Amino acid sequence: MAAEPVLLALSTGTIILIAVLVVLIAAVITLYFLGKKMQKKQEEQEQQLQAYKQTVSMLVIDKKRMKITESGLPQMVIDQTPKMLRWQKLPIVKAKVGPQVLSMVCDEKIFDDVPVKKEVKATVSGIYILGVKGLHGRQAPKEEKKKGFFKRAVENLQEKAGAKPIDTKKK
């Protein structure tokens, strides 16, 4: 009798599970290295923005989130943006700087803090707004965001039950 080779008796499910794990591990490793590369790129861009920043006095006319093609930015800027980013909405601020009315891209972190129809001192790098400080008058208090259906329902139930409302804002 001829000796048959001994194979590991693995079920089909186990083989599929091992294959999926190998693919997932490869994806995680790839994402890790791509993330490090993109982080370095972002740090370099941040250094360039900081190197060319200057403080400018401007009157903010309007602010909106809109697609880059509808924003009124120079055509050269629109042409240089990657095609995948052209459909995303950017925080755009229309402001009067000196005698010119310009459309500028605002940093996402400070977009909500930019007062409309107020004169501000802005830290600008090219057409990118890095920071704003109010110049004349006090800033209006921030409007509270509307509560969602679930939060309103929970508050109504707590009020009916006589319980103290849960403070969702962390101090």
Give a description of the structure.
The longest helix is centred in the first third of the chain and has 40 residues, at 12-51. The protein has a five-stranded mixed β-barrel. The model has no long low-confidence stretch (mean pLDDT 84). The protein has two domains: 14-51; 53-134, OB fold (Dihydrolipoamide Acetyltransferase, E2P). It has 171 residues and is of the alpha+beta class. The protein has three helices and five strands, in the order H-E-H-E-E-E-E-H. A hairpin with a 2-residue loop joins strand 2 (89-97) and strand 3. It has helices at 12-51, 75-80, 149-161, and strands spanning 54-67, 89-97, 100-106, 119-125, 128-134. Helices cover 35% and strands 26% of the residues.
> Main sheet?
5 strands, mixed, barrel
Describe the global form.
Answer: flat
Provide the helix percentage: 25-40%
Which residues form runs of ≥5 with pLDDT under 50? Answer: none
Rg is: 27 Å
Using DSSP, what is the number of strands?
5
Question: How much of the residues is beta strand, in percent?
Answer: 25-35%
Which strands sit side by side, in order, in the main sheet? 1-2-3-5-4
- What is the number of helical segments per DSSP (H or I, 4+ residues)? 3
Order of helices and strands: HEHEEEEH
Distance between the termini: 80 Å
Mean pLDDT over the full residue set: 84
Q: At the third CATH level, what is the topology name of the largest domain?
A: OB fold (Dihydrolipoamide Acetyltransferase, E2P)
Task: Assign the CATH architecture of the largest domain.
Answer: Beta Barrel
Broad structural category? alpha+beta
| Integer tally of domains | 2
Q: In CATH's first tier, which class of the largest domain applies?
A: Mainly Beta
